[in-house]
């Protein structure tokens, strides 16, 4: 069975989470209880996932602040 685009994203996010402790994923619907971004973040530790309200400017501002604080933010906005 061939892998789909979403599968490659999940693999990449899992590998990044394992190799980079400064990773922080923020956005709407990223928490394990909220759906994990359609399964893309299911193997990323919960401590690296920050559930945000559906406010894109707020999410973007948080990601900028995380980067200024030395983290590696991944901003997920579900469309």
Largest sheet geometry: 3 strands, parallel
Given the C-alpha coordinates, what overall shape results?
A: globular
Strand content: 15-25%
Taking strands numbered 1, 2, ... along the chain, how are they ordered across the largest sheet?
Answer: 2-1-3
Query: What radius of gyration results from the CA coordinates?
Result: 12 Å
Q: How many DSSP E strands? A: 3
| Poorly predicted tracts of residues | none
| Helix share, percent | 25-40%
Question: Helical element count?
Answer: 2
Secondary structural class: alpha/beta
Average pLDDT works out at 86
Topology order in helix (H) and strand (E) letters = HEEHE
In whole angstroms, the N-to-C terminal distance is 27 Å
Element layout with pairings:
Elements: H1 5-19, E1 23-27, E2 49-51, H2 56-68, E3 72-76
Parallel strand pairs: 1-2, 1-3
Describe the structure.
There is one protein chain. The protein is an alpha/beta fold and 79 residues long. Helix content is 35%, strand content 16%. It contains two helices and three strands; from the N terminus they run αββαβ. It has helices at 5-19, 56-68; strands at 23-27, 49-51, 72-76. A three-stranded parallel sheet has the order 2-1-3, with helices on one face. The longest helix has 15 residues, at 5-19. The protein is globular.
Summarize the structure.
This protein has 79 residues and is an alpha/beta fold.
Main attributes of the structure:
single chain; 79 residues; alpha/beta; three-stranded parallel sheet; 2 helices; 3 strands
